[in-house]
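Reopening this ticket.

The earlier resolution said the output was attached, but the attachment link was broken on my side. Pasting everything inline this time so it's all in one place.
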Amino acid sequence: MFFIRVAFWLSVAILFIPSDPQTGEAPRIGLVNAFMAAKATVADLSGFCDRNPETCVTGGAAVDLFANKAENGVRMLYRYLDEPAAGKDTLNEDDVALPWHGPEEGPA
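Inline output:
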């Protein structure tokens, strides 16, 4: 069902993209024809899991894995953004002190 929703909204978004003027005029499709084609596609897709149950189980597991990874990524991003920023003056005197060097010996 997730893929059907994604395909639907992706199709809606693509409909708003203008066609390339260099390739010529886009074919004119009536609203009724487009609706009937979409209805037939949804009817065909709704029976997909009945015809291919193993594919739907595998696809469902893949979608679950993807959703878990996306949720984990959002959680990690939230933690990262929620952490307070480190201060600019975090060095102490020992960190910035130059190490002691003895006198350099000249040429012998």
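Reporter confirms the inline version is readable. Residues 29-83 form one domain. The longest helix spans residues 53-82.
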